[in-house]
Automatic annotation (TrEMBL):
Protein name as it appears in the record: Nucleoside triphosphate pyrophosphohydrolase
Any one of the GO BP annotations: dUTP catabolic process
Origin species: Neogemmobacter tilapiae
Family matches, as InterPro entries: MazG-like_dom, NTP-PPase_MazG-like_C, NTP-PPase_MazG-like_N, NTP_PyrPHydrolase_MazG
CDD domains cross-referenced by the UniProt entry: NTP-PPase_MazG_Cterm, NTP-PPase_MazG_Nterm
């Protein structure tokens, strides 16, 4: 790939060419980070940009859940820009460039899909391919612990499921949801005991244990707990906004209402959704 940013006339032509594709985006990024670029962009590093990367991934998921294809197009662009941003900073530090990122992921996809790009039979189920994929990842990691490589930065519920999946592969798992539900009841009891008899540290720990079992129950039921919680968050937001709207019709705000009234309005909002 050419040194970036390009000489100014060539750079300006590329930056303003809507048909230039990824080369245009790479040049825009290099210009933003150049000495005469954007002061904010020049000050950023991997640590300060990482939260934006995570946020953009969630915005992609949100657009998908809403079925917003126009929005998804924009959000995928924002997420792509995050990859370009990190690659530009890595190139400036002499670590790697965007081309290296593309080559690594392309090589990985070819190696992990021998049934498509190699000699292995393509006559397999999606479940078999998932097992083969994980086995290939394990070979790539070498002799490491069962739980190694599960990213620390994942959302808590997602990481819990991934840890549990790893442990389940070597037989450390309950055989059915019945045992998980029993454990859920046990953990709920321990949480109550911690609330009533123990201190804040114990209560904190028991809350974590209960959430971990909830993630395990979702895994056994083949439900993504993060997606389920996002859906419930959206439902709560929708219904509470309906409460606010109904109160406005009475010339009131939630602060001027009380729990009894708002609970009744919540039930009304819930009934309206079901009937609608």
């Amino acid at each position: 790939m050419p040194e970036r940013p390009l000489p100014r006339p060539e750079s300006d032509a590329l930056v303003h060419d809507p048909e230039a594709g990824i080369e245009r985006l790479l040049e825009i990024m290099a210009r933003l980070r150049a000495p005469d670029g954007c002061p904010w962009d020049r000050e950023q590093d991997f640590g300060t940009i990482a939260p934006y990367t995570i946020e953009e991934a969630y915005e992609v998921a949100d657009a998908i859940e809403q079925g917003d294809m126009a929005g998804l197009k924009g959000e995928l662009g924002d997420l792509l820009f995050q990859s370009v941003y990190h690659a530009q900073m890595a190139a400036e530090a002499g670590h790697f460039g965007f081309g290296d990122v593309v080559r690594v992921v392309s090589d990985k996809m070819v190696v992990r899909h021998p049934h498509v790009f190699g000699e292995e039979s393509g006559d397999k189920t999606a479940e078999q391919q998932t097992r083969d994929w994980e086995a290939q990842k394990a070979r790539e990691r070498g002799r490491v612990g069962v739980l190694d490589g599960v990213a620390m930065g994942l959302p808590g519920l997602t990481r819990a499921v991934k840890l549990q999946n790893r442990a389940a592969r070597v037989g450390f798992d309950w055989p059915s949801t019945d045992q998980v539900l029993d454990k859920l009841v046990e953990e709920a009891g321990e949480l109550v005991e911690a609330r009533d008899k123990l201190g804040p540290e114990e209560l904190f720990a028991e809350m974590g244990d209960l959430l971990f079992v909830m993630a395990n129950l979702a895994r056994h039921l083949k439900i993504d707990p993060e997606a389920a919680l996002r859906a419930t968050n959206a439902k709560f937001t929708r219904r509470f906004e309906r409460i606010e709207a109904l109160l406005v019709e009475q010339g009131k705000t939630p602060a001027e209402s009380d729990l009894v009234e708002m609970d009744a309005l919540w039930n009304r909002a819930k009934a309206e959704e079901k009937s609608g």
